[in-house]
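A protein record pairs a chain with a discrete description of its three-dimensional fold. The shape at a given residue is found from the number at the same position. Here is what such a record looks like in full:
>
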Amino acid sequence: MDNEMTLSFLALSENESLARIAVTSFVAQLDPTIDELSEFKTIVSEAVSNAIIHGYDEDGKGLVTVRAVREGDVISVAVKDEGKGIPDLNKAMEPLFTSKADMERSGMGFTIMESFSDNLQVESEPGVGTVVTFSKKFQSVKMPQIS
């Protein structure tokens, strides 16, 4: 492991941007492309939003923990909540499935995370919580030398 960070915060929607900024700053040490950075921010946003909205029903009482690890040019992130858990993980991972249709949720969160990451794993147990773990390999941007 070359570097790591851990951030915990209350399950409030306003803290989704805090997580996204913190992890984006952590990733910046790899000098990613704009596209890579944008995709990574999207994955973090989706995972954290799911924890807040689905894990805790935005109660503002539970904690969401984000842990990022850098090994070479790969960043791995785990987003953990100790909320409700997911009763049917296979169903939840289906495109367009949402348990919050009344909130106009699209049901594309896991699909988006899966398409933008190199590896996505979701572990969940009802009444215990959920951990979304993903990784992405970055191609550093090398600026040309000006003579």
DSSP finds four helices and five strands in the chain. The chain has a mean pLDDT of 89. The helical segments are 16-27, 34-55, 89-92, 109-116.
